[in-house]
Amino acid sequence: MQDLKKFCKDLGVELYPKQLEILTNFYGNKNFRELLAILGRRSGKDTLGVVMALKEVDFLLNLKDPYAYYKLAPGRPIYILLVSCSSIQASIFFTELKCRINNSKYFKEKIDKVDEDRIHFKISGKKDRSIVIMSGHSNSEGLLGKRIFALILNEAASFKAADRIYSALGPATADFRNPSGKLDSKIITFTSPRYEGDIIHRLATEPVKRRLVARHSTWVVNPHLDEKCLRAEFRFMSDDEFMMEFGAEFLPAEGNQTVSLRLTGTMIDKLKRIARKEAYELDKDITYTDLVRNVLDEYLISEVEK
């Protein structure tokens, strides 16, 4: 797809052949609304996410006035939302995004302003209408309540509550029906796999007409790496771990046992108070479920050491 190659060249990006194939298959079929790319580590997932985020911005900008096209009330921005598994990863994502925009004369001229975690683009010179790319992380409550044209999830299998992210943010993409009645909004996921039966495995195996699933090992996507060298570099990993991280294979469900806890209302209220105090002192998002998870992690580690 020549036009996609030109688009990437303008951003200073040269995609690997398999990366280009994935994007070509997705954008070449107008029926696809969802992309689930399950790729091994070092497959360039961040770069793919940035390219697709800007591709969606470009689509909206070329509509001239997407608010009129989708019959949306002005006032609320249209979001391209990039969600990572941590605040550090979200910052890395946003840094690459700004770098690619700075390489592009086209996008630089469209910028209205840049904030700490978001970039605003102009729409027809109207102040009450804007397109915003925002980079956030999966533990942030600030992701909710937005009108989302493209939801891009990076390493979704590593989210602490991936199911909640999909169920909470997926419906926010439902406002963008074109004149034919079909949704133009996108839900795009780039991730390494984890366990059979988790949300990523379920999405990959359930048949959905408008979802493209691509699953490839690192050495298939990245031509600069091969399996033998990676195995030598990560020889401390078990074969199962290696094939999960680099081979894009799911581990059996029995390796992912869950623990059920019954907490009283009093216990939950106390945990919430502790979480608010720690969140304030550490200046980062902490929930009472994080506290429970940390306790369980410490318990499991101590049992393994014994």
Structure description:
- The chain is an alpha/beta fold.
- The protein has 2 domains: 2-227, Rossmann fold (3-Layer(aba) Sandwich), CATH 3.40.50; 265-305, no CATH class.
- It has helices at residues 2-11, 17-27, 45-61, 66-69, 87-102, 105-110, 162-169, 199-205, 218-221, 227-233, 239-245, 265-282, 288-305; strands spanning 34-39, 78-84, 111-114, 118-122, 130-137, 147-154, 186-191, 211-216.
- Strands 3-4-5-2-6-7-1-8 form an 8-stranded mixed sheet, with helices on both faces.
- Helix 3 packs across helix 5 (87-102) and helix 12 (265-282) packs across helix 13 (288-305).
- The longest helix is centred in the C-terminal third of the chain and has 18 residues, at 265-282.
- The radius of gyration is 21 Å and the shape is globular.
- The protein starts with a helix and ends with a helix.
- The model has no long low-confidence stretch (mean pLDDT 87).
The biggest sheet amounts to: 8 strands, mixed
Question: What level of helicity do the residues show?
Answer: 40-55%
CATH topology of the largest domain: Rossmann fold
CATH homologous superfamily of the largest domain, by name? Answer: P-loop containing nucleotide triphosphate hydrolases
Q: How many helix segments?
A: 13
Q: What is the string of helix and strand elements?
A: HHEHHEHHEEEEHEHEHHHHH
Which structural class fits the helix and strand makeup?
Answer: alpha/beta
Any idea what the radius of gyration is?
A: 21 Å
In terms of DSSP E residues, the strand content is: 15-25%
Low-confidence stretches: none
Distance between the termini: 57 Å
On the 0 to 100 scale, the average pLDDT is 87
Count of discrete domains: 2
